[in-house]
Amino acid sequence: MKEKSDLHIVEYSVLLTLAFIISLLFYYFRYNHGVLIFLSGVSSFAYILWGLIHHALEGRLTKFIAAEYVVFGVLIFLLLYTVLNF
Amino acid sequence: MSVLTGKKKSNIIKDWRQQPKSIEKFQFIHHFLPHPEEKTRATLLSNRAIIVYCAAMLLIAGIFRFLPKVVPGVLGYASDISVKDLLTYTNAKRKESGLSELRLNSALTSAAYQKAEDMFKDQYWAHISPDGTEPWDFILGQNYDYIYAGENLAKNFKSSKDVVEAWMKSPSHKENLLSSNYDEIGFAVVNGVMEGYETTLVVQFFGRPRNAAQVASVYEEQTVLEKESTRTAAVSEREKEPATEGTSEAVQKPVYTQAPSEKPAIDVTTATKTVSAVFGGFVGTLLALDVWYSRRKGLHKFTGHTVAHLGILILVVASIWFVLAPGIVL
């Protein structure tokens, strides 16, 4: 049980670190829309990958959960792309 | 009117509990809250619902792209940019780097205005025009004989500070801004319709005259700034006056005007940010309700991690609202 909880902390720490790095990059390149669109794609892909790996390690990755991370990843990308495209 | 006795009522509730799925369909609340029996999220958070939101966002983005082609000038970028502020911020950046301040030159200013007006007239956004005219042609056209010259362009920005900050973030533009090869500068801030969007173009020309004695004096700089404020005030007054029907002014609307100009009917930056914030906020609120309701009822659903989705969504909406700024430099 403790091992599972430790793994959870490690995985969430990875997600937090990714989010922090991407936020910093977003701020640094805030005037370069080309780079920001690329970063949005990378962030969405990274989140989908994190979700899939996290659930696979937990042993509860199903098609439904995989689809859920994919649609949330696409939503995140579109939220950013709608603003960056103009 | 019949009144249910306590026993009858408890029987009905018992029957309902035996057929939870059929009842669930009619429970409107589960569009917003998780389904305890099915152990899934709210209907409006299902994968299918998220796909619908994505499609809706694509549709809205498509409308924002298509609308300017049908009704030019309705969508645009509201801005508050002035030559005086651009000069102040540019020289402040040079001063921070230990460089001399640049003097505002009337010939470079006229050349910058010609360049901006040419871009609106021929509808291009580039250093070299479609007919091959280079930035230097505009400068030489004003009889400005130079040893060094440079050009920075910007469009769709909200403020003068944003324009200079964006140039400073781009290595090639920063190189121009902080070059010790230049003594003088000229700016143009011109409003108009570019590719259907009402926008503001900023042209910045740098130069060092071949004859050092020709470097603009403080008096010349003041004259250029005064001319600039007179021109801006004249445009502002002209826009306030209602155009008389039948006059050429009423029939022919100019393609471009010196700033300030009317604000577009819809500011595309605010509109797109609002669309993203509304969709993101709606999904985020449902996710927050999901976390609260599931904890309260002790539900364990067969889904991904709601807290992770919520965290990422909050970060994205905050970035959209507080970090992303409009504007492109060239």
Automatic annotation (TrEMBL), chain B:
Top-level taxon of the source organism: Bacteria
Comp. bias (Basic and acidic residues): 229-243
One Pfam family named in its UniProt record: CAP
Chain segments annotated as transmembrane: 49-67, 275-294, 306-329
Region: Disordered, residue numbers: 229-256
Domain SCP: 88-197
Alphabetical list of CDD domains matching this protein: CAP_bacterial
Record carries keyword Phosphoprotein: no
Residues in coiled coil: none
Keywords: Membrane, Transmembrane, Transmembrane helix
PANTHER family (alphabetical): SCP DOMAIN-CONTAINING PROTEIN
Descriptive protein name: SCP domain-containing protein
Natural source organism: candidate division WWE3 bacterium
Lineage: Bacteria, Katanobacteria
